[in-house]
Amino acid sequence: PSWDGWEAVGFEGLDGAVWLRTSFELPASWVGKNLVLDLNRIRDHDLTYANGKIVGIQENNEPRNYVIQKELLHVGKNIIAVQVLNYNDKGGITGYKDTTRHIGIYPVGDESSKISLNGQWKYFIQNDEPPAVGVYQASYQPFGDLWLRFYNTGGSTNYKRELDLSNAVASTSYTVNRVNFKREYFISQPNQVLAVNVSASKKASISFEISLSSPHKDFKVLKIGKSGLALYTRVRNGALRGESYLQVITRGGELTATDSTIYIRNADTATLYLTAGTNYKDYNDVTANPTTPCLTALASIEGKSYQQIKATHIEEYQRYFNTFSITLSNSKTAETRNPPSGGRGTTDQRIEKFASSNDPSFVALYLQYGRYLLISSSRPGTGPANLQGIWNDLLTPPWGSKYTTNINAEMNYWPAELLNLSPMHEPLFKMTEELSITGRNTAKEHYNAPGWVLHHNTDLWRGTAPINAANHGIWVTGGAWLCHHLWERYLFTQDKNFLKNKAYPVMKEAALFFNSFLTRDPKTGWLISTPSNSPEQGGLVAGPTMDHQIIRDLFINVITAGEILNIDKSFRDTLKEKYKRIAPNQIGKYGQLQEWMQDVDDTTNKHRHISHLWGMYPGHEINWDESPELMKAARQSLLYRGDAATGWSLGWKINCWARFKDGEHAFKMISMLLSPAKGGAGSYPNLFDAHPPFQIDGNFGGAAGIGEMFIQSHTKYIDILPALPSALANGEVKGICARGGFVLNIKWKEGKLQHLAVSSKAGLPLMLRYNNKVVTISTTKNGVYNFDASLKKL
Q: Which end of the chain is less crowded, N or C, counting CB atoms within 10 A of the terminal residue's CB?
């Protein structure tokens, strides 16, 4: 059995009719007894036999507990055979998620004597072409694989894998027979190629094979030219097809190629350039020629050396990465500035030791790793980062590796403005614009309402309708949350052209929907959101707190934007009137912020999704300056929920504790995030966030949370070092951003501010706060202002 389907144990991409068979020896004491065959869950449809006689047929996601009548059994070997009919997604006997529980067989009423049927079953793939079936939304899937098979690698020493965050180049190096080998990898945005360079310290030492393949069943590989391969692939039962061209350049040695493999013998160096393209133009158009981007990319590198291509890649990447720097240490350690290799051991060693060691530079490394991941997965002109960024390697990934819009997709972009990566927000805005188009159909068909709406999930094709099940799929504020990002971009940049031409039209249409959708609660007279859910808690409810927080945020942002642009006064007045009538935040009997209209919160509920705290973070209607009682209630809610969480939930909680201005508790959460992922939350050896399994939102949420410890600007003040923990007693950040169009450089020592420099991009008034001292000055556009440890202007 495999809980994640037979795909997880070597059968990636398999769907169809498959026979599975095993046997067991019937104990003499069981003769004359009916037996229970416990297979737990099977995906999707099974016909189960004992000794050739059918004992059960089922087609659902419920457990299989079939009774085998005693007449079908005999002493000695008995055969269990299961025909599994799997149409899409995960397949096979999945057994129990808790691997300490086994599938098996036992006498009726005597489970304690169960014979385990875990282990290797025989199998026969009867038919792997099932009919196409409808799916809710499409998964994000890998394209193909590039295989490098090296000769003479036995006895290697000095093996090292490295990712240099400063230039986005990965490398692998090792030594064999006193020859040093090195492979370098990078993806060039300017040239649209994956580059791999293989080198050695001794000439004529490089010998290996190169091949291409794809996990998609429908693919083929052909030789192109004298030293290249082409991969052609097509998605099963889908609209997408793609092509990938590989070009290989060697110096010295011999290169030969067949239709499937390139062989390199005794070369001095070898460089590979891989390109790819599909027929996808946008969510409504798949008429692109996949050959074109491949040929364009190869033409762009013609006549250029590997070093030239690498230099162009680094220059483009560093335009984004070098806008920000961070140095962290404490009084007991020397400062380490963004150590590319970690500085204090390998990454997995530092994760293992982090909670018990003084390693503040690892926090800096984690933040910069988050920035690297966002740059790498969300360049302008590409698609937005999904549940796994762009790094999913499965045809049937968890949750489709899509865009879950009740937290995960948005969390990916929490660092974008704060950590000076505003251009990386562009793909999310493009997707939001497209969703506002498809979402109009959903608003009309499902609610007979104007404007647009998005529920809790979307995909490449910009689906907006409720999916999965009513108890969690009918949640209406995904689009309104995405609009919050449009407004945040304006707040951080003060770009009125963006507000007028990109943000406001989409925000207004979302507000039009909720202007129609909100319903008067007959009991309280408040306007409420219904039907809906409180995300991930389950249950179809009226008036979840999170909905009202997000809708209020949308309304006030549309009102403010309309005033800035001096448009739509009548609509603004309508929103102002309704804003006042939306059900308010409420404090419950335990002193907690209520998650629902009714005071039914359970203090023992440890759920990872803290939906009702949205108004405190990432929203800001709940804050210490304007609503301290609600802040106390929000903190009480989070205390009841506890610290334990999955990776993305830890990322959210870090930001919450930073907003509570409790740096020590926030750092405790960071320590949990930077702990080994051993079957639960934490970080994998490459610092990917464990949900589990891998989900990239925790990386982005954690990076943003670290930034919130150094600066907060969600109220009228820019708070300096509002949640600084003692573990980060000394440090410096340069290029961190604040709302109002400000960029700050902050230096502190022994937990106290030393120097502050503020650049004003928009020339707005500046209101700083540090240690309860407030300083207000006027600024000019592009002016730079310096302050000492007491916020005295220098």
A: C
How many CB atoms within 10 Å of residue 668?
A: 18
Calpha distance 479→456 (Å, rounded): 9
The CA distance from 90 to 395, in Å, is 9
DSSP state string for 667-719? HHHHHHHTSB-SSSSEE-TT-PEESSSB-THHHHHHHHHHHHHHEE-SSSSEE
Beta strands in 286-359 (DSSP E): 325-329, 336-337
- Using CA atoms, how far residue 479 sits from 395, 407, 456, 530, 547, in Å, is 27, 12, 9, 16, 11
Task: Write out the two tokens for 380.
Answer: 């302008």
Closest CA to 467 of 459, 456, 477: 456
Q: Cβ atoms within 10 A of the Cβ of 750, count?
A: 10
The pTM (predicted TM-score) of the whole model is 0.94
732 strand-pairing partners: 327, 747
Q: Which of 22, 35, 195 is nearest to 106 (CA)?
A: 35
Is the CB of residue 163 less than 8 Å from the CB of residue 170?
yes
* Per-residue model confidence as pLDDT tens digits over 509-518: 999 999 999 9
CB-count burial class (<10 Å; 0-12, 13-18, 19+) for 566: exposed
DSSP bridge pairs for 676: 683
Tens of pLDDT along 474-496?
A: 999 999 999 999 999 999 999 99
Q: Which contacts (CB < 8 Å, 24+ apart) does range 333-336 have?
A: 333/358, 333/359, 333/360, 333/361, 335/361, 335/730, 335/731, 336/361, 336/364
